[in-house]
Amino acid sequence: MVIYYFVWQYAPFVNIRHYDYDNKGINKDIKGDDMEKYIVMDEMTKSDWPAVQAIYEEGIQTGNATFDTVAPTWEEWNAQHIASCRFVVREDDRVIGWIALSPYSTKRAYQGVAEVSIYISQHSAGKGIGRKLMEILIKESEASGFWTLQAGIFPENTASLTLHKKFGFEEVGIRKRIGKLNGVWRDVVLLERRSSKVGMD
Predict the structure, then answer these.
(1) Torsion angle, CA of 106/111/113/117, rounded to 10 degrees?
(2) Which residues of 37-75 are buried (b: 16+ CB within 10 A; e: fewer)?
(3) Which segment of 1-10, 48-57, 173-182 scores lowest on mean pLDDT?
(4) For 55-74, what is the mean pLDDT?
(5) Is 199 exposed, middle or buried (0-12, 13-18, 19+ CB in 10 A)?
(6) I need a labelling partner for 165 at 20 to 30 A (CA). Which of 31, 139, 171, 190 fits?
(7) What is the pTM of this model?
(8) Under 8 Å between Cβ of 44 and 88
(9) pLDDT above 90 for 1
(10) Are 151 and 165 in contact (CB under 8 A)?
(11) Is residue 33 exposed (0-12), middle (13-18) or buried (19+ Cβ within 10 Å)?
């Protein structure tokens, strides 16, 4: 199963004054002196699904995020994704981005390999949300025993390619005309990130 990504513009958070981890190891970013307005990296729950689905639908509309033309239901999405390593970004309690893993294979030999899915709301571009999501995903995936993360991205989605490469994903190759989207054959760039901490025996 190949997962694709929503196009977004990469940029660091602005005016970040405080950064720490709560007791779950999930970080909080508080911007400037306004302590009531903050961005929180949080674990995804079922109650987040309406917002997660809406952001997924934004990605579909770009034409460069996924082969899907209709967003899945919660039941479909939940069955296809690994129960751990699901995170959302909340800004003033509003979900503005999410990231999750899906299994690469049911074979035991591949139990530490997973595919990444990351989507950012188009209204939150330029805040560095993707960077923060990728940071926590890598940290938590390694803690959960995953040694390889892979991603399949449309070559037109240059922002997502840039993001993944900044986090050590290397291009494996291009899957030529792997599938049709709205009647048009599309290529997919395959990338992989091998952990330097997990599976080193």
Answers:
(1) 60
(2) ebbbbbebeeebbebbbebbebbbebbbbbbeeebeeee
(3) 1-10
(4) 96
(5) middle
(6) 31
(7) 0.81
(8) yes
(9) no
(10) no
(11) exposed
Residues in the chain: 201
